[in-house]
Design goal:
Chain lengths: 149, 92
């Protein structure tokens, strides 16, 4: 059995105020609640305990580390919570999570813009635009930018 | 330069996940129109993302599932090559 812990870097990108930190804090809160650290509270409404607050993670404590067991092996997930679209690449992510706010159409549009930036940095043609002389591994099923109604 | 290596490394194995947040705030009174999961999923497919997820941290709805999917993908990146899906975008 492999007992060494492997580190995996994950980066969350998305608009400010779209809920990235709240999402991570929600997942993280049981561990922090045990430590009785309280600085910033958001009310959590769950069926079990409607008044239990989420303790927000502090940005300065990044990366947020989650230990995960899978198939007898231990993994260390390091979450970087960032709003910056420019330099997340320097964090050398293994997984990229793009977040958007379902209640804000603007954040969906920003996600699309983010994707355009991403396709440039990943060296794949942006939506549907194919370069005839460069063979691409990725298929391009869509023609033109998808229209957002 | 190490920065150059980072920037121009083989990045086409990077798995990209789409996460919709504040699911509880999807309301019919939104002046810009409701963003239905279908629409966002279509966009995710056009972006060639690997997975599409939605959750609400306010009510706790689907948070566990979404986080599990993220963990699952993360573990796959070190276990079996890359965590990318086999063509197409998966829905949680």
């Amino acid at each position: 059995m492999d007992t060494e812990t492997r580190s995996i870097t994950l980066v969350l990108v998305g608009d400010a105020k779209c809920g990235k930190s709240t999402f991570l804090s929600f997942v993280h809160s049981p561990c922090i609640l045990a430590r009785k650290e309280t600085n910033w509270r958001v009310r959590r409404v769950t069926s079990k305990d409607p008044t239990a607050p989420i303790v927000m993670l502090r940005d300065m404590d990044q990366p947020f580390i989650f230990e995960v067991n899978s198939g007898g092996a231990k993994y260390r997930l390091q979450f970087h919570d960032t709003a910056s679209p420019d330099n997340w690449m320097l964090l050398e992510p293994d997984v990229l999570v793009i977040c958007y706010d379902i209640s804000q159409r603007l954040s969906l549009l920003n996600m699309r813009r983010q994707a355009c930036l991403l396709s440039i940095s990943l060296h794949i043609p942006p939506f549907g635009r194919t370069y005839p002389n460069i063979p691409s591994n990725r298929s391009t099923p869509h023609s033109g930018c998808p229209s957002v109604r | 330069m190490p920065e150059c290596k980072v920037a121009f490394e083989n990045r086409d194995i990077l798995p990209v996940l789409i996460l919709g947040l504040k699911r509880d705030l999807r309301s019919a009174s939104d002046p810009n129109g409701i963003i239905y999961p279908q629409e966002a999923y279509q966009l995710a497919q056009a972006m060639r993302a690997d997975k599409y997820m939605e959750c609400s941290a306010m009510t706790g709805e689907l948070v566990k599932e979404a986080f599990e999917e993220i963990c699952f993908t993360a573990v796959k990146t070190v276990k079996e090559g890359d965590g990318q899906s086999q063509g197409g975008c998966m829905v949680m």
